[in-house]
């Protein structure tokens, strides 16, 4: 169903399927009372939560451990004015269980940055929403 | 200069040059006390503020008119684990001056969506920060 604003709302399963193929997403949070955003690579866990790997002493961990954040991924093609975006909103928490940390060392995301004392952060897939822009209104572009 | 975390901080002018070539960015704000994010196409005005075009009665306008938001754009290449991101943090406001609105109809961004009663929203380029990941640590990928 296309909505009047030109977007089609995506079902949760479709959102998760799109998320699973995105290499990079963006953590959206609040830092010192201001809106903040940081792109990171990530993976989805078996329960569809978002997993990041970062430094234990990072500003990001200090800001988001234990609080509700948004996580966004998208893919747009300017030439067609088309694409999709998905937003997961849920509680973020550092993975502290040693067995779980061990499991994620094997199956979780690998940081793109060199780091010491890396930790995994899980963002629960509490609310998942997404939308697709089909690009019907192309004009003035190829 | 590369920092210890593998990122290079970008100067303001370099950030604005990268922003100018990005077709899509993301407005980061707070909606009903939760972090929120919405991808939009945009352009940069002559004073380097970010310009969006959206519907006057949109949820986005209600949430951000008159408040400080972040605006992020990035470009990453997963195969090289490289890319850049830029964040502008500043006050967002609907353009209400008729002459300014007229000017932006000619020079401002064109919404990718069909809309009635469109307005321009300006995000002041108060704080501009950016970083580049050079992708030095590629392993296990082509």
UniProtKB/TrEMBL annotation, chains A, B:
InterPro entries reported in the protein's UniProt record: Pyridox_Oxase-rel, Split_barrel_FMN-bd
Tell me the Gene3D superfamilies matching this sequence. Answer: Electron Transport, Fmn-binding Protein, Chain A
Q: Can you name this protein?
A: Pyridoxamine 5'-phosphate oxidase family protein
């Amino acid at each position: 169903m296309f909505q009047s604003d030109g977007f089609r709302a995506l079902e949760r399963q479709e959102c998760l399927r799109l998320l699973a193929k995105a290499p990079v997403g963006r953590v959206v949070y609040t830092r010192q009372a201001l809106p903040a955003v940081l792109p990171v690579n990530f993976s989805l866990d078996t329960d569809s939560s978002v997993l990041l790997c970062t430094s234990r002493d990072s500003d990001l961990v200090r800001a988001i451990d234990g609080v509700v954040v948004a996580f966004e991924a998208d893919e747009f093609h300017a030439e067609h004015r088309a694409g999709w975006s998905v937003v997961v909103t849920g509680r973020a928490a550092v993975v502290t269980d040693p067995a779980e940390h061990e499991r994620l060392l094997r199956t979780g995301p690998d940081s793109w940055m060199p780091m010491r004392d890396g930790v995994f952060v899980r963002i629960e897939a509490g609310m998942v929403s997404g939308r697709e822009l089909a690009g019907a209104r192309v004009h003035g572009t190829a």
